[in-house]
Design a protein that fits this description.
The protein has 260 residues and is α/β, with parallel strands linked by helices. It contains 10 helices and 10 strands. Helix 1 packs parallel to helix 2, helix 3 crosses helix 4 and helix 8 runs antiparallel to helix 9.
Length: 260
């Protein structure tokens, strides 16, 4: 697929996916969602890539929301299909990738932008970042998982307030709420994400894959998270990474994980 609205940069085991629609403040339209799906799919299937960082171009916006012009005249059926397709292609897809995804929130993360950041496995923000779900000011509700992921991350009461007021919170408030893990300057944002990605890359890809599944299972309505953890824990014993990790520990050397 030829990318028009994103670009990918790879350095060693880390890939950076940048959403590049600066005139639209990197808003998500149909094409961008499809491109992001293909990019994440491709990187997830590349065993040499251990971590993906996603960010927005420029210094104003991570993703300032969905492209409203694409659905302003939709009916009930079309609206439901829009949400279902978007969740399948991008938001649920990212959350369940075996490859860890870090959101580098470099500015406005509103509506679908915040929903994309929340679908990532964790988030780092720059000081100028602003986050919110403004959908109720448009006569809508979040449709890409926002009503589910935001309460998990910051609690029901705070999530209800953010959704019902349609207001934005600062990066510092997001840190206080637990919505982001760190807040740094624009200049430090990608370097910190890359530093965290390097740390992740040193660990077992097969174990990280199972950890993602186990953690996500705890938030699934039809899955027993504890049972998933037990199953995933057991599967780790059948991997080469387990043999390598334990051998390296006993031999007092650094492990060389291959992800198998």
């Amino acid at each position: 697929m030829t990318y028009e609205n994103i670009y990918i940069e790879e350095e060693g085991s880390i890939a950076v996916v940048t959403i590049d629609r600066p005139k639209k403040l990197n808003a998500l339209n149909k094409r961008t969602i499809e491109e992001l799906h293909e990019a994440f799919k491709e990187l997830n299937e590349d065993s040499s890539i251990r971590v993906v960082i996603v960010t927005g171009s420029g210094e104003k916006a991570f993703v300032a929301g969905a492209d409203i012009s694409e659905f302003a005249d939709f009916n009930v059926k079309q609206g439901g299909e829009l949400a279902a397709k978007g969740q399948e292609l991008l938001f649920d897809f990212v959350e369940n990738l075996k490859t860890p995804v870090i959101a580098a929130v470099n500015g406005f993360a509103l509506g679908g932008g915040l929903e994309l950041a929340m679908a990532c496995h964790f988030r780092v923000a720059s000081f100028n970042a602003k986050m919110g779900l403004p959908e109720t000011s448009l006569g809508l509700i979040p449709g890409y998982g926002g009503t589910q992921r935001l309460p998990r991350l910051i609690g029901s009461g705070r999530a209800m307030e953010m959704i019902m007021t349609a207001g934005m919170i600062s990066a510092d408030k997001a840190l206080e709420f637990g919505l982001v893990n760190y807040v740094v300057s624009q200049e430090e944002l990608l370097p910190l994400c890359q530093k965290l990605a390097d740390k992740i890359s040193n660990n077992s890809p097969s174990a990280i894959k199972q950890a993602i599944k186990a953690v996500n299972a705890g938030y699934s309505y039809d899955t027993n998270g504890y049972a998933q953890e037990i199953d995933a824990f057991g599967k780790c014993f059948g991997t080469q990474d387990f043999k390598e990790g334990t051998s390296a520990f006993l031999e007092k050397r650094k492990a060389n994980f291959q992800g198998s």
